[in-house]
Amino acid sequence: MSTTQKELRGASRWALSLNAVLVYAFFYAPIALLVLYSFSDDDLVGRWGGFTLDWYRAFGQNDEVQNALGVSVRVAIISTLISVVLGTMAALALERFRFRGQRVFDALLYLPVIVPDVTMAVMMLLFFTQGISLLDSIFGIQLSKGIATVALSHIAFSISFVSIVVRARLSGMNEKLEEAAQDLYASKWQTFRHITLPLIAPGVIGGGLLALTLSLDDVVITQFVAGPGSTTLPVYVFGLIRRGVSPLINAVSVVMLAASILLVLLSSLAQRARGGQAT
Amino acid sequence: MTTVLATPELEATNERQKRRRGFFLALPAYIYLSLFFALPLLIVVVYSFATRTRSGGTALEEWNLESYRKLGEPIVTDILLRSLTLAIITTVICLVLAYPFSYFLATRRELTRNIMLVFVMIPFWSNFLVRNYAWRVLLGNDGPVSQLTEGIGLGETTILFTPTAIVLGLVYGFLPFMILPMYAAIERMDWSLLEASRDLGASGFQTFRKVTFPLSLPGVIAGSILVFIPSLGAYVTPQILGGGKKTMLGSYIVTQFLTARNWPVGAAVSTVLMFVMLMATLIYFRKGGRTL
Fold first, then answer.
1. What is the Cα–Cα distance from A33 to A43, expressed in whole angstroms?
2. B274 contacts in chain A (CB < 8 Å)
3. Same domain flag for B140 and B40
4. Would you call B137 an interface residue with chain A, using a CB distance cutoff of 8 Å?
5. What CATH number is attached to the domain comprising B152?
6. B40 contacts in A (CB within 8 Å)?
7. Is B1 a member of any domain?
8. Are B27 and B132 in the same domain?
9. A2 near B CB under 8 A
């Protein structure tokens, strides 16, 4: 019965289909054209001048781009690893235990998700500027903004996203299995290692991929906390775009897009693994 | 083997142990976020009450409301008004596009639905900067859009670096944020209520207005907030597609910090933005939305 009542008739059905087609065209036409132009042998970015791989070659040979890519990858790996550990622990604490200060913690964990980029950027800038000058004046330690400040900021927003994804997985999970393991004299660690962790693995992997994506994509916050020499790829590209468009940016953009798409596909695979449903 | 009975004492010890373990599990993230999130947030609020020195530094000694008073000046109110207008327009366009789309999505068979969803997730996850850049290329001089409009006799397209281009970029960037919660709400709806409404003689439009729409309202609210908040604080889009000339709130804040070096005013605008966002989030949770 559920299919028949959901069936739509005549004009409205036609209009809905048309709208869906238009929405998809709106999503994908710009991306498709960008990919197309990245192979175009023309110095003007929006014109087709025959097939070439020159811009990708330029991408591979440009030292600044390669440096920025290196920084991006390092920051993304460090911040993902740390935020996955902290975020998963936080998720377990909130879903499986009751403890003092839980509600404050819950709220604190949600805030980084909803604070606008620009505000968070300002927060981190003021914090690190103050912190660095304080360390200098009290202990005489000379620090400056660099990869560490970028990674610390990325962890600050990634923990929340990881914990949300892992919590979604945990809340749909049956606690009985863990109880059964305990009844069968498994230690707390054994229970976690052999029961809980395998069950939440898709959530942990999904959260990790999300953290990776967020770190690789961030422009605004990174721009505020990066020092000389710790420019990430998006920040470098943003700087280039502000000076004008170029075929090189097209190629870099397509590489970044391809990386994001690969990460989405991996994540939707991870979510579906072991009979889990994507949430 | 001895049978352990659940005595009240044992249960209390157990309970205490559980509390302690939960607390210690949460502790690392708690400390991290207190130090690297809550403290920075507090510092911004403190700075908003500080004074800008002549050299562009910040004097923290005497707290005052000078920076907040500055928010009432025409330059800032203009920017505020423009940001609000553009954010509202963006939200409305997203609503109009996303509602029928989500409805369509929710009424598909499961396989079709899952495939369609993946193709919404891809733009949702893709690099925001790059997706805005794509429009910069498309809308540029002699770009494909211009070629198209000239081809059909509408003349050259000159919307790049105008508010229209900013709205276009924002809609493009945030449409998935509207679709996903809306789809979740519509999909969860009790469809038999719709049938009941029709059986009782309501017209299609009446059913939509009195049944379907109210049932999907949590998704509408959640999606609207998820689009409105980042649009209001947008920085990347106005820079790339607006040319950074007609400023929005996000760009204004960045300018105060990086160019004008008026940190107290930048901090005050950030504080206001944060407050608006907090209010919106409270409404979101009040309405029972916890999708996403």
1. 16
2. 115-116, 119
3. no
4. yes
5. 1.10.3720.10
6. 123-124, 126-127
7. no
8. no
9. yes
Who wins on pLDDT, B271 or A7? Answer: B271
The answer, for B204 touching chain A at a CB cutoff of 8 Å, is yes
Map residue B262 onto helix, strand or coil: coil
User: Cβ of B203 under 8 Å from any chain A Cβ?
Assistant: no
A45 touches chain B (CB under 8 A): yes
The residue from B21, B36, B59 where one domain ends is B59
- In Å, what is the CA distance from B203 to each residue of A186, B199, B211, B281? 61, 10, 11, 35
For the domain spanning A63-275, the CATH number is 1.10.3720.10
A87: contact with B, CB 8 A cutoff: yes
What pLDDT, on a 0 to 100 scale, did the predictor assign at position A232?
Answer: 96
Cβ pair A165, A140 in contact under 8 A = no
B55 lies in the same domain as B73: no
d(CA B78, CA B115): 44
- Looking at the complex, report in whole angstroms how far the Cα of residue B52 sits from the nearest Cα belonging to chain A: 14
Backbone angles phi, psi at B66, to 5 degrees: -50, -45
- Name the closest residue on chain A to residue B138, using Cα atoms: A46
Q: Token digits for B180? A: 């996903």
Residue B3 domain-assigned (yes or no): no
pLDDT per position as a tens digit, B215-224 = 888 889 888 9
- CB distance B126 to A261 below 8 Å: yes
pLDDT in the model for residue B146: 82
Residues of chain A with Cβ-Cβ distance to B195 below 8 Å are 5
Min Cα distance A5 → chain B (Å) is 7
Contacts of B118 in chain A (CB under 8 A): 264-265, 268
Phi, psi of A7, deg, nearest 5: -65, 135
Q: Indicate whether this complex's ipTM tops 0.85.
A: yes
Decide which of B16, B41, B59 is a domain's last residue: B59
Closest residue in A to B181 (Cα–Cα): A279
| Partner residue opposite A108 with nearest CB, options B38, B101, B130 | B38
Q: Using the 8-state DSSP alphabet, how is residue A226 labeled?
A: -
DSSP type of residue A12: H
Give residues with Cβ within 8 angstroms of A46, minimum separation 6.
A37, B137, B138, B140, B142, B143, B144
The first and second tokens of residue A17, run together, are: 């289909």
Note whether B203 and B272 are same-domain residues. yes
Question: What does the pLDDT read at residue A113?
Answer: 86
Answer whether A264 sits within 8 Å of B140, measured CB to CB. no
Count up the domains in chain B and report the number.
Answer: 2
Neighbours of A246 (CB within 10 A): 16
Which residues span the domain enclosing B47?
8-59
CB contact under 8 A, B97 and A241: no
Residue A3 confidence (pLDDT): 43
Given A24, A105, A119, which is nearest B270 (Cβ)? A119
